[in-house]
Design a protein that fits this description.
Order of helices and strands: EEHEEEEHEHHEHEHHEEEEHHHHHHHHHH
Number of strands: 13
CATH superfamily of the largest domain: Dehydroquinate synthase-like - alpha domain
CATH topology of the largest domain: Dehydroquinate synthase-like, alpha domain
Distance between the termini: 40 Å
Number of helices: 17
Strand order of the largest sheet: 1-6-13-10-9-7-8
CATH class of the largest domain: Mainly Alpha
Helix content: 40-55%
Number of domains: 2
Largest sheet: 7 strands, mixed
Length: about 450
């Protein structure tokens, strides 16, 4: 499953793995407890947990993950028509933003591969991820009898495309769905008998949020500033296993058509998915392998992302690394902090991560091991002769170097709209974020602790 140093073209199909590894070693190493868990992306992992120090033997696990067929490689978009034909789709709707829709270097090869089954291009998505855009798109799906949606671009278009499919499957009014969503913060799922159009995703940014069966959506057209301290809900989540993409195409040549500013703004988000997957409570030998390999590819290449002489090989490695860090991803505390900014202010998630990740990691390492030895391996840090504290400091320094190499902001006060007086309400929003509940054992930050981290980032 490893990509390797040269990031060769590869293709992964849907897999099911249930492999007990090293049971004797794990059970002899100390007290264990069974932890079955299913995360919001439909990953089912049951592990025999043991308290892990600087090193750990493989533990028994069951791993079931179905992200869809993954096709990677320079020029692989030329296989889109072949995959579409093999799956029997007849009416396709491309979903993207207006800038992507106008990018002919990107759109022409996609449209050529879709040929006669391309019904239309819905180019109305925006970074705001407004739920009303998804409603408009769902109406288009119904009007045109679409059976496959092809989101192209970043996380906003992919999330909107998936939600369009979900909304098109209801046997109730959109108004009633919106009302329920605004009162609960969760988009309800349609009945199991409902037919949901398929998706084939073509990512062109580096956020690493493509291999999911859900996403997030905003309930206001634009970020509206300071998080509410009352019960107002401004963002919602949705998830349904039927939203898993049939296929995902990662063609580095298409990523190269995206503006550098968009790639840079999304890259830190993807990078942090590899970090969080490693110290996740439900990590396994499979996610350890993909996350560390992905971090190695990204750490060594992201600094070249905005270089005028960036090579094709460097972009190949960056895209392959982004695939690997999100394979079986397990996001938690860093992403919860990121949501506290990106859900309410006009900042990209990657910008929020750039500011906050070093401070959040310091908080993590002050309280738990955080599997720092394995993180060091993925980040190219030699642990020899370093104390645990020195190793933690070295990890944080590499994260800062990646952030600075991308040219991202390094202070919370530099993010548009954020005010120091807002920090208590931002901390309260982070404390209520569902992602925070997936933090590793030993981490249970309250609002005061969260606000202290925010102050350190100010």
């Amino acid at each position: 499953m490893s990509v390797g140093a040269d990031s060769r073209v590869f293709e992964w199909y849907r897999i099911r793995v249930a492999t007990p590894i090293g049971r004797g070693d794990a059970e002899s190493a100390g007290a264990t407890s069974q932890i079955p868990t299913r995360n919001r992306d439909g990953i089912v992992i049951t592990v025999t947990e043991q308290r892990r120090g600087m090193t750990a033997d493989p533990r028994p696990f069951e791993f079931e993950y179905d992200p869809g067929q993954i096709v990677y490689g320079r020029g692989c978009i030329d296989r889109l028509g072949e995959v579409i034909e093999s799956k029997g789709f007849e009416r396709a709707l491309v979903v993207c933003g207006s800038n992507v829709g106008a990018n002919r270097d990107l759109m022409e090869p996609i449209e050529a591969e879709l040929e006669s089954i391309l019904v239309d291009v819905f180019d109305e998505t925006t970074p705001a991820k407004d739920i009303r855009t998804a409603v408009d798109g769902a109406e288009r799906i119904l009007e045109e009898e679409i059976d496959v949606v092809v989101p192209v671009g970043g996380g906003s278009s992919i999330d909107i495309g998936r939600l369009m499919c979900l909304l098109s499957a209801y046997d109730r009014s959109f108004a009633s769905i919106l009302e329920e969503t605004e009162s609960t913060g969760v988009v309800p799922n349609p009945p199991e008998r409902a037919a949901i159009p398929a998706t084939i995703a073509i990512p062109t940014t580096l956020a690493g949020a493509d291999m999911t069966s859900g996403g997030g959506i905003k309930l206001a057209p634009q970020p509206t500033g300071e998080p509410p301290l009352d019960d107002e809900i401004r963002a919602a989540r949705f998830s349904d296993p039927r939203l898993t993409s049939e296929a995902l195409f990662y063609d580095p040549a298409l990523f190269e058509t995206a503006p550098t500013s968009v790639l840079v703004g999304s890259a830190m988000n993807g990078f942090d998915k590899g970090i969080e997957t490693i110290y996740a409570e439900s990590s396994s030998s499979i996610t350890d392998a993909t996350a560390t390999d992905g971090l190695e590819l990204l750490e060594g290449s992201l600094s070249a992302l905005d270089a005028p002489d960036r090579s094709q090989r460097e972009m190949d490695r960056i895209v392959a690394g982004t695939i690997l860090v999100q394979y079986g991803r397990q996001t938690s505390i860093i992403h919860a902090f990121g949501h506290g900014i990106s859900f309410y202010y006009p900042a990209q998630q990657g910008e929020a991560h750039g500011v906050l990740a070093p401070h959040v990691l310091r908080y993590v390492f002050e309280r738990i091991d955080g599997r720092r030895s394995l993180l060091a391996r993925g980040l190219g840090i030699d642990p020899a002769g370093r104390s645990p504290d020195e190793l933690a400091d070295a990890i944080v320094e590499v994260v800062i170097e990646v952030r600075d190499g991308l040219g991202l902001p390094d202070r919370l006060c530099d993010l548009k709209g954020v005010r120091r007086a807002h920090l208590p309400s931002i901390a309260a929003a982070i404390a209520d974020d569902r992602t925070l509940a997936r933090s590793p054992s030993g981490l249970d930050p309250d609002v005061d602790a969260i606000e202290s981290v925010l102050e350190s980032a100010w």
